[in-house]
Write a structure and sequence with these properties.
Chain B: One of its GO terms (molecular function) is RNA binding. The complex is a heterodimer of chains A (102) and B (120). Chain A is an alpha+beta fold. Chain A has 2 helices and 5 strands. Chain A has one domain: SH3 type barrels. In chain A, 16% of the residues lie in helices and 51% in strands. Chain B has a 5-stranded antiparallel beta sheet with strand order 4-3-2-1-5. The chains are: A alpha+beta (102), B alpha+beta (120).
Chain lengths: 102, 120
């Protein structure tokens, strides 16, 4: 309990605290299947279910040109005004400075 | 948290995107604690990513197969969402703290009695 008291004084940042600090900030979310999201974090829970606002999704696919056999990485983007994301697809969440330009 | 959030969206139109890339637009009829979804009056949204289910008007979607739910932005109070998430994060942190405190207290009591026996 002494450790507990020290922790609450220093407000030790556990992983969930670091996400909590990012509420109302723009975050970068990496998901399974080569997907990335970039949007404003409005809500999250311990499963990492999230609600993101003004979110841009990037899906990265590898396409091979049949003639040249060249490998091309293709990125497909789309934007959604408000999106619920199920936590079981999330790999990582990272803050981006909200003043950062695209 | 999200169970309550979805309950406030019952009756609204949403687009559910599944993990198999299917997208279904419909009216949210009901939701449960697992975030399973009942959708009414299903219609086409993404042309290619939509399966031909012309026979179906209503469907039950298991929560675990959902990838995204596209929501109407004007139905979501972002400030309230953020406050609720902050509260939920603090609550789960205090629950974890009291659980670890209880575990530590139990371990300390057991170690103390063991030490006494050793000294004698």
């Amino acid at each position: 309990s002494r450790q507990q008291a020290l922790a609450s004084l220093a407000s030790i940042e556990e992983p969930m605290d670091l996400i909590r600090v990012s509420l109302d900030e723009i975050v970068h979310v990496k998901m399974r299947n080569e997907r990335e999201l970039r949007g404003r974090l409005h809500a999250f829970d311990s499963h990492l279910n999230m609600v993101l606002g003004d979110v841009e999704e990037t899906v990265t696919t590898l396409e091979i040109d049949e003639e040249t056999y060249e490998e091309v990485y293709k990125a497909t983007k789309r934007t959604v005004p408000m999106l619920f994301v199920r936590g079981d697809g999330v790999i990582l969440v990272s803050p981006i400075g909200s003043s950062q330009a695209a | 948290l999200f169970y309550s959030f979805f309950k406030t969206l019952v009756g609204k139109d949403v687009v559910v995107e599944l993990k198999n890339d299917l997208s279904i637009c419909g009216t949210l009829q009901s939701v449960d604690q697992y975030l399973n979804i009942n959708l009414n009056d299903i219609s086409v949204t993404d042309p290619n990513k939509y399966p031909h289910m012309m026979s179906m008007k209503n469907c039950f979607i298991r929560g675990s197969v959902v990838r995204y739910v596209q929501l109407p932005a004007d139905e979501c109070d972002t400030v309230e969402l953020q406050n609720a998430a902050r509260k939920e994060a603090m609550q789960s942190k205090s629950v974890a703290a009291t659980a670890s405190a209880a575990a530590a207290g139990g371990g300390g009591g057991g170690g103390g009695t063991g030490g006494h026996g050793g000294a004698h």
